[in-house]
Amino acid sequence: MLKLSKKTEKHQLEIGLNALAKIGLIEKEADNSIRTGIVENAISGFIRCSSKGYCFLVRDDGQDDIYIREQYLNHAWHGDKVLVKVLREAIKRRSPEGSVICVLERYNQSVLSTIELIDNELIANPLDERILAKISLTPNSELKKEILETNNIYEVKINKYPIGQYKASGSIVKTLSLESGYQGDIEIIKAKNNIPIDQDHTKISIKSPSTKNRKDFTDQDCLIYTSWVSKKSPSLLCIYTEPFNGGSKIYIHVPTIAERIGANSKLHKILESKAETLFLGDSWVNLLTEDLQKVSGFTTEKSNEAITLELHIDKDGNFLEWQFHLSKIQPKAIINDEQLELISKRKPSSRTTPLKLKPIKAFINQVETTAFTSKILNTKLYSIGSISIESSNINHEKLKDNLYINPGISYKAWTPKLDLSQANSIVNVFTRIANIIWNRHHTSLNLPGISLSSKNIDTNQLNEIVKSAIILNAKVELNEEGITSLPDFVESISTIENRSIIEKALKSSLPLKQFYLYEPISSSTINKSSNSSNDPLEESPWSSPFMSYSDIVNQHVIFSLLSEAKSKPRTKEKTLFGQKGVHQSIDWEFFSQIQITSFNKLLNNRTVRILNSSAKRSNSFFIDLLSMIETRSIESKIGVTLDGLVTGVQSYGFFVEIDSYQIEGLVHVSSLDDDWYEYRSRQNMLIGRKSKKTYQIGDKVKIKVLSVDLLKNQIDLDVDLKYSNQLDLTKK
């Protein structure tokens, strides 16, 4: 299979296999066959390092992190998936310590680096200080000259990772400069986050969806909602709502992608490797091929095949009935943000229709009904534990396609508050509801799926945030154990003056949602009691197949359930497998072993790892993109005095958000030369020994911008002491 022809290559493979067998990762049989081994007492997880060289294993099982000393890293780098053995158990408050026995998967295929010449050898130094390694480069006389004459940075591809006494080696794939404008910054951030951008797809035939047994909704006035304006922006779902029995009936129509792609086809492998659609600030790199987008995306010009969720809710948003269908629809109009804003401001008694609303005049009532329904559903999400935080306005022309949220790539444990004048905000509510319902449906049927689950915030971090909120006069109610629930805490800070400080801290501290594989019990025959998750907010994404590969593989299960599942033997009655509660009447095997095997090939832990890794990268990419834009905006203000707000205090200094720029910088304690400042952790405050001058969260200050580091997204600030002294006199 490997097609190794050279004797040296076969010898090297044998050495590698022997090494893996020695540590127990594989077992070699007498007939030279190989099977997976079991490493006793080994723990898997990802390496997380700090810029100061402290490294930990973040365990897959969610238990306490394991401290890894540098000499026990075994050449593992930040982000790598590894196996670790515990050397010393936890003692009191000290973490357990361990040693890396094997690197299972490398996170960095390339690194952003500076290059230096040491003893006539080119050495790449990763800009990411968490990567504790140096990389030897291929000799290049022209490059040696360039290094002496420029301050460029370089994307270095890793050709060989370090092993034993051998250092890592690599080659330069791209020269980058901080003087190349916005597109140059994009290239730097892509390289920094290992974002592979390859939009070329091999031409692959696309299957036509079956026209049989599709429910016809083409007469329905369903509408497409989108905030995006770019030509290559992804397609979203289509929505229709109507009043029904004191509540509402909702139809969520989703582009059907899975049935256009053969299971385990070449195109599936391509989509799996890409994992998701990526927004680059001013353009999109789409998950789907152009041909696949064209034939499956919803338009108002033709009928479209779809998968539909029909949902009946009561006046409080409770899910009364649901039914999944293979369907056919024809959207009647596309609704954008400008139209939504005009409708939201329109008086009910108005007899005139603004010019920009005339193309959708016949559907205004439908838009208002959908907006009202989204409010009910959003309130329902809050009641079962959803967290809503005010979204920061991103005032940058390059980011107009991503001002708020991308429905379908919502890995954060919080959502922005519902904005009825923003189409994507409305769509996001229906997307989450559709995903929650499929999670409940497939788990009750004991069917596999890829799900999204929120991780708990670190208790120490939450305590620090709560402490800061109390300093800012938030009335936080604690239970008998001295803790508060996140929804209650978010509600408690909603009325304080500087709530944006606490909300920002929460956003950065809440862990991203994680994909995981929901695996059914051994038999496909299910119990009459539901096997669904205890988390009412848990999602199994399927309603944004243009955005994430997770939705496509889950759609395969939906399509198979609706088109291939076998009704009860020896009866003519057709089983409605997409209907709520159907699991209570099933006592037979409705999928063959071949179909179950096909599911297992698509839905597996390898796919989950790819999705989680991609989510982590794309989230890091966008954070870095925002930071670069914000840092660029303040670059011209070096030496200028500006207004700011203290947002956090530590022993080494305090952070200040610069007014009107929404960007934070650090005032290091060493720059406060008017006194000796002590840190009081209980009050989250720095206080001068002699002057008793204080710096505490929520204080207004005047600061000067000292320096800006674009690559590290760091801004160093200094306090304007003249203004600060005047402010102290005013307080007294």
Secondary structure: elements and pairs:
Blueprint: H1 7-23, E1 26-28, E2 34-36, E3 42-49, E4 55-59, E5 66-68, E6 81-88, E7 97-105, E8 110-118, E9 121-126, E10 135-137, H2 141-149, E11 153-160, E12 168-176, H3 181-192, E13 215-217, E14 223-225, E15 238-244, E16 247-255, H4 266-274, E17 278-279, E18 284-285, H5 290-296, E19 304-313, E20 319-329, E21 333-335, H6 337-345, H7 364-383, E22 388-389, E23 415-416, H8 423-444, E24 449-453, H9 459-471, H10 486-492, H11 499-509, E25 514-518, H12 549-563, H13 593-602, H14 605-635, E26 641-650, E27 653-658, E28 663-668, E29 677-680, E30 685-688, E31 694-696, E32 700-709, E33 714-719, H15 721-731
Parallel strand pairs: 5-7, 10-12, 13-20, 14-21, 22-23, 28-33
Antiparallel strand pairs: 1-2, 3-4, 3-6, 4-5, 6-7, 8-9, 8-11, 9-10, 11-12, 14-15, 15-16, 16-19, 17-18, 19-20, 24-25, 26-27, 26-32, 27-28, 29-30, 30-31, 32-33
Helix pairs in contact: 3-14, 7-8, 9-11
